[in-house]
C-alpha cells in the first residue's frame, strides 16, 4: 500500500547584509563579548536594513529554495510563513510573499508560534499535503526580530537577530516506512500557563502598540532543556527509532548550552549537530531552516539523511520533526 508523504526537496536562506558584533552591542548596553559568548555562544547577528521587511527576507529565501528544488513558483499551491514579526498586523505576510514570488494558486497564510514557528509551519504544510489539499508547499521562517527588541535591555537585546529560511515540500507516494524519504512525523506542544516567562508587552488588541520582548531567561532555559528533550524522545519513539539512527540534529539556535545539552542527551557527537548560533544568534522562526540550508549548502546534510528538527519559544510552544531529506532515488 502506498502512503502520501511530503518530500523536503529544497531549501534556501537569506541574511541581511548588516552584521552587528557583540563588541558593538557592548558600546550600547552593559555587556561584554566574553559574557555573551560564554552564556550563549553568540558572536554576532544580522540586522535588517531600514525599509527591509520580513517579506523581503522571506521572498529572497524562497527564491533560493525553489531554485534548489528545481521547482517553478507557478507550481506552488500552499505558502505558510512562520513569523512573529509580520510586515503589518494584517494581511498575512505570506500573501505578500505569494505576490512577490508570482504565485497565484492555492492559499497563503501565517503561523504564529514564535521560535517554534518553523516546526509548526512544517507540521501544518505536511498535514495539508497528506490530506491531499495541496501538492507543493513553501514553508518559510522569516523574522525581523530585532525590530521588537528593547535595545536598553541587556538580558534580551544581545540574543536575537534577523533572517529567513525556506523549504519546499512536494507530495509523493511512498511505502510509508522509516527508510522512505520525506517527513516521517511532526510533534507539536504548547502550554499557555507559561505565557509570562517569554512574551511581548504589546499587541493590537491589548495596547495598540507592537511592544518589546520580555523574558525570564533562566526559567525559559529550564523549560527548553526538559521539553525539547521530551519531544525528541517522542519523535524517535513514534517512529521506532533510536538517537543513533539520526544523521543530523538541526536544533533551534537559542543558546549553545541548550544545543549541547540536547546532543549530550541523544549521545550525538558534536559533528552530527548543526550549529550556527555564533554567526546568526537566535532568529526565532528562521533559525532551523537557516541552519538546515547552511548544512545542505556545505555538503554536510545529503539526500537520504535522517534529520531531526526541534524548537521551543514563547507560548510556550515547542515541537520536533523527523525528515528523510531529498527525493527518493526512484523519483
Ligand atoms: O528562542 C526562545 C527560547 N529562548 C531561550 O531558550 C533562551 C533561554 N535562556 C537563556 O539562553 C539564558 O537564560 C540567557 C542567555 C538568557 C541568560 O543566561 P543565564 O546563564 O541564565 O544568566 P542569568 O539570566 O541567570 O544572568 C546571570 C547574570 C545576572 O547577573 P547577577 O544577577 O548574577 O548579578 C544578569 O543580570 O548575568 C547578568 N546578565 C548579563 N551580564 C552581561 C544578563 N544579561 C547580561 C548581559 N551581559 N547581556
Sequence-ordered SSE layout with sheet pairings:
Blueprint: E1 3-14, E2 18-21, H1 22-26, H2 33-40, E3 44-47, H3 54-69, E4 78-82, H4 93-101, E5 107-111, H5 117-130, E6 136-143, H6 154-157, E7 163-174, E8 182-190, E9 198-200, E10 213-215, H7 217-238, E11 248-251, H8 256-266, H9 277-280, H10 287-297, E12 306-313, E13 317-324
Parallel strand pairs: 4-5, 4-6, 11-12
Antiparallel strand pairs: 1-7, 2-3, 6-7, 8-13, 9-10, 12-13
Helix pairs in contact: 3-4, 7-8
CATH class: Alpha Beta
Ligand inventory reads: oxa(dethia)-CoA
Total domains: 1
Main sheet makeup:
5 strands, mixed
**Portion in strands:** 25-35%
- Under CATH, the topology is which? Peroxisomal Thiolase, Chain A, domain 1
Helix/sheet category: alpha/beta
What general form does the structure show? globular
Mean pLDDT: 97
The total strand number stands at: 13
Spatial strand arrangement across the major sheet: 1-7-6-4-5
What does this structure look like?
This protein has 331 residues and is of the alpha/beta class. It has a single domain (1-331), classed as 3-Layer(aba) Sandwich (Peroxisomal Thiolase, Chain A, domain 1). The protein contains ten helices and 13 strands. It has helices spanning 22-26, 33-40, 54-69, 93-101, 117-130, 154-157, 217-238, 256-266, 277-280, 287-297, and strands at residues 3-14, 18-21, 44-47, 78-82, 107-111, 136-143, 163-174, 182-190, 198-200, 213-215, 248-251, 306-313, 317-324. A hairpin with a 3-residue loop joins strand 12 and strand 13. The structure holds oxa(dethia)-CoA (UT7). Oxa(dethia)-CoA is lined by residues 31, 35, 39-40, 115, 154-155, 158, 217-218, 220-221, 224, 254-255, 258, 282, 312-313.
